[in-house]
Structure formats: structure tokens, C-alpha cells
Design a protein that fits this description.
With 271 residues, the chain is an all-beta fold.
Length: 271
């Protein structure tokens, strides 16, 4: 009597008859880099882009950072990222003048727009010991009357420093399309903060050699509030925003209106 043996093969990690749903996912870490350098010098840091999903992702567009930042190791437009594949991107900061700089690099795939925000602080180099001292002209003897003169104007107060920016999106249980953004941040001193939500759009006017890149356009979701020193909380009505990737900009302002360094954080809204 003949005996027939029947084998049924199932994908690894799944039960018989069970299908594996495609899960496109691209992660970047860290999501932000802060670099410090002296004028004329250069510093660098690394970020990793990893396909953590279970399907291959095609790179639709790449946005390289603008000067004084530069990046090497970014995937090319049209390149396919296999599940588990990683790209290590090296970001360089080479300032030509003192002050702060802001930029970003991002990659758009089927999983959405994933971004690394960049901030840089540049300081003037220390004076050389061989530099001869500056010869000042001898003071001219004169008598100046201060009677009735106005007191010197006080130095303007610098803008506060904003740190620890976080955003969380929630949907109201009673209204499916009612979205609220819960925002938290810390201020070094009291002042005003401008909050604005930006949406990505593909542009063909890019600063680098790529044919298309991502530009961030301000939406109508914004808020201006006067806050105290320390941790602060704010809420934004995001019901007008659809599903997708967005960026929140937070700019601290001094009482004089002078703007401080803008901080960015990326987030996604689900359907």
C-alpha cells in the first residue's frame, strides 16, 4: 500500500494560511543634530537612515542641507532600500561667520518624509598671540559737561532660549476629524513664542545636484503666546490638516521683538 506524504510550507514567523501585511517604515536616528565649530574650522556628526519595515522602499526625493552644512552618504533618488538596510550619513558643519545656523536633510519614500533637523553654532577664532597690539591714538583733553544729559539706554534683553520641544497629536473621541496638537517646551526666560506647522512639498529648485527635493510650506495652523520661564504647554487645533508628515517650528521672541533660535520637530498625522 502506497503512503502519500503532503507538506505545507508557511512563511517563517507566520502560521499556516496567515498572510504578512506589508509594513513600509523608514527610521532616522537621531532626529536632530547640533554641531559647534569655530569660523574657518569644521566639525561633523553622523545620522542613520534604516528601513525597519518588511518591504523595499524606493527613494522618491532627497533634500540635502544648505550651507554651511553638507552631507555625504545620502541614498540616490530612485534607489531602492531593502528591509533591514541602513545608510550612515555624515553631516559636516563648516561656518564662514559667527552665529547660529539652521537646516535639515530629508528623504521621501513610500513611508513618508523622514527628516533630520540640523543646528549649528559658530564662534570667532581666538586672536593669535603673534598679533601686534592695536595702537590707539592719544586721548584729546577736553571737558564735557554731563549736566542735563540723558542716562545711557539699557542694553536690550536677549531672546529666551527654547529647548526640549515635543509635540503629540491626538484625535477627539466624539469627532473623528478633530485633531489637537499638544506641545511642550522649556524657556530659559519669560518671553513670547511663535508656533507654526509646516507641510512638505516637492520642489525642482534644489540647492544640490538632485532633481527634486522637499521644501516646507507654512500652513494656517499657528499660534503666538506669551510664556513664562521654565516648562510651558500649548495646544493647536489641527483639524484642518490631513494625514501625512508635518514639521512644527517654535521661535522664541524677546520683549523687544528680537527672534531667538528656531527649533524644529517632525511629526505624522494618521488617518
Amino acid at each position: 500500500m502506497a503512503i502519500a506524504l503532503v507538506f505545507s510550507l508557511a512563511p517563517a514567523g507566520s502560521a499556516l494560511g496567515e498572510t504578512v501585511e506589508p509594513r513600509p517604515e523608514l527610521r532616522v536616528f537621531p532626529e536632530s543634530l547640533s554641531l559647534v565649530a569655530t569660523v574657518g574650522g569644521q566639525t561633523s556628526a553622523k545620522a542613520t537612515l534604516a528601513n525597519t519595515g518588511n518591504v523595499a522602499l524606493k527613494v522618491e526625493s532627497v533634500y540635502a542641507p544648505s550651507a554651511p552644512f553638507s552631507a555625504s552618504g545620502l541614498p540616490a533618488e530612485g534607489e531602492e532600500l531593502r528591509p533591514g538596510q541602513e545608510f550612515v550619513v555624515e553631516v559636516a558643519f563648516k561656518p564662514t561667520g559667527a552665529g547660529s545656523s539652521q537646516s535639515a536633510l530629508s528623504v521621501k519614500t513610500e513611508a513618508g518624509v523622514d527628516e533630520v533637523t540640523l543646528s549649528g553654532a559658530a564662534s570667532a577664532p581666538a586672536p593669535s598671540e603673534s598679533t601686534p597690539p592695536v595702537q590707539l591714538p592719544a586721548p584729546v583733553s577736553s571737558v564735557v559737561s554731563t549736566q542735563g544729559s540723558a542716562p545711557p539706554a539699557p542694553a536690550p534683553e536677549p531672546p529666551p532660549v527654547l529647548t526640549r520641544l515635543r509635540v503629540r497629536a491626538s484625535t477627539a473621541a466624539t469627532a473623528r476629524h478633530t485633531r489637537t496638537l499638544s506641545i511642550a517646551y522649556t524657556l530659559s526666560s519669560a518671553g513670547t513664542v511663535e508656533l507654526a506647522v509646516l507641510a512638505p512639498t516637492v520642489s525642482h529648485r534644489c540647492a544640490s545636484h538632485v532633481r527634486s527635493c522637499v521644501r516646507w510650506i507654512a500652513t494656517k495652523v499657528k499660534l503666538k503666546a506669551t510664556e513664562h520661564a521654565g516648562q510651558n504647554h500649548a495646544k493647536l487645533d489641527a483639524s484642518a490638516l490631513g494625514a501625512g508628515a508635518y514639521r512644527l517650528d517654535a521661535t522664541p521672541l524677546a520683549h523687544s521683538g528680537d527672534a531667538g533660535t528656531t527649533q524644529h520637530v517632525s511629526f505624522k498625522l494618521a488617518r
